[in-house]
Amino acid sequence: MTQHDGDALPLLDNSVLERLHMELDHDEGVWKVFIRDFVAHLPFRLERVRLALTTGDTVAAKDAVLSLKTSSQMVGAERLAGLALDLEGALRFDSKEGDPSVVLPRIATAHLTAIRQCAEQTSYLLNRHLLQFPGRV
Q1: What is the DSSP annotation of 54-107?
Q2: With left for phi above 0 and alpha for psi between -120 and 50, is residue 76 left, alpha or beta?
Q3: Mind listing the domains of the chain with CATH numbers?
Q4: 62 near 113, Cβ under 8 Å?
Q5: pLDDT of 128 over the 80 cut
Q6: Dihedrals φ, ψ of 89, to 5°?
């Protein structure tokens, strides 16, 4: 994936959400808790990415972006996962070009606005999805 390839993906993969609902519904709405936890922890995950990038901490940045990507994939947040993958690629290749305290903030500038906007849209849609299934939890 190249930068902005993540933009071409759908915000949510409904098949992942349906699978979560089907597989976890027998557990009294655990699927809703799973989605709510993702939404609740998303600002923290974004802040971890931002902080690691802006302070030039390559190891923490790679860990934070992996957490964001993996958790996004687990709830079907395809576009957010794709943008995280783009950022992961930038960390892998662009961070080799010089001093991390200079390069990583530059990577942050190139990626974080799109990631933050996508995270807001994703949170909104996931919350709407939860409202479609009122009742438990």
Answers
A1: HTT-HHHHHHHHHHHHHHHHHTT-HHHHHHHHHHHHHHHHGGGGS-HHHHHHHH
A2: left
A3: 5-131 (1.20.120)
A4: no
A5: yes
A6: -65, -40
Q: What is the pLDDT of residue 104?
A: 96
Give, in order, the Cα–Cα distances in Å from 4 to each of 32, 85, 119: 30, 10, 15
Residue bearing the bigger pLDDT, 50 or 28: 50
Residue keyed to tokens 């949170």:
123
97-127: b or e for each residue (b if 16 or more CB lie within 10 Å)?
eeebeebbeebbeebbebbbebbeebbebbe
Higher pLDDT, 74 or 94: 74
Measured in whole angstroms, the distance separating CA 108 from the mean position of its chain's CA atoms is 15
